[in-house]
Amino acid sequence: MADWDIRKLRILRTLHELGTVTATAEALHLTPSAVSQQLTGLAKALGVTLLEAHGRRVRLTGAAHLVLRHAEEVFAQLERADAELLGHLRGEAGQVRVGAFSTAIPALVVPAVRELRRTHPGLAVTVRETEAAAAYELLAAGGVELALSLAAHAPAPRDPKFSRFPLLADPLDVALPAGHPLAAEPALRLADLAGEPWIFGSSGPWSQITVAACESAGFVPEQAHAAAGWSAILAMVAAGMGVALVPRMALAGGHGTPDGAGIALRVLHADQPRRHVVAAVRRGGEGAPGPARVLAALHRAAAAQARGRTAAGPPREAPGTVQSP
């Protein structure tokens, strides 16, 4: 029987993900020569050629891809084994590390942590803020056990490394200056704002979400100003410098627009965009009691968000301060 060395298989998987020996060595805190030696040893143990020269780089052979396909099942089974071992603690103690983008923290993570402090005080939840697009990298690297991201930033749906769970469809409302001619327009549509100057980030997820939403409504937004934080974005809206899309979840916890600012926050009709919030774990780890309890609490926090919207509805005008996306 071939020697399936788990450590060497992880090196091979990392090389497949990152593409170069140098990047693999940096990610795993090894030297490039150590990476090459480990992979040479794995190839000898398995009796197959795993790498072939491709210019100045190397690429995986067909045999290497076959090995990885089976290795993913091994990694998932090891996650399940870890989950069963943790089950002896019944999820009453231990630590769960959660990575989440900034607006998800007050809206979903904080309510979930508050609940768990009451129901499972021995379970420590530590939170690490991360960009939505980077959450899966952090999860894959073992930096967290559970990550909150957006569906738009998920890897391929069939990526074998992750199990994903939808949490919330977050509506995007539009912020206009209070005196804007469309501020009181009934049945406002996103397409009605095609000719307006827009305010959104110069890059990153919120830029992509804004552009994609507008393109779906039939136009490309004219970016008049660029900003990443909600305080800056809404201050410019209040000054009459443009309009902006605002995720409703960003208003969780009573946050709104800058003090004294006149901003009309309007619900879009017919073509209202939404961003989809998802939680993810490494595949096989969803059965671990700690992450399972945190995930259940996040689902309840998301349901409470949805119920609150149904009962109260979004405000037409919002005073206060909003956090960054």
UniProtKB/TrEMBL annotation:
Q: Where is this region: Disordered?
A: 305-325
Q: The organism sits in which domain of life?
A: Bacteria
Q: Which residues form the HTH lysR-type domain?
A: 4-61
Keyword tags: DNA-binding, Transcription, Transcription regulation
A GO cellular component term found in this entry reads:
protein-DNA complex
Q: Membrane-spanning regions, if any?
A: none
- InterPro entries reported for this sequence: LysR_HTH_N, LysR_subst-bd, WH-like_DNA-bd_sf, WH_DNA-bd_sf
Family note: Belongs to the LysR transcriptional regulatory family.
The record ties this protein, via PANTHER family, to: LYSR SUBSTRATE-BINDING (PTHR30346:SF29), TRANSCRIPTIONAL DUAL REGULATOR HCAR-RELATED (PTHR30346)
**Protein name, as recorded:** LysR family transcriptional regulator
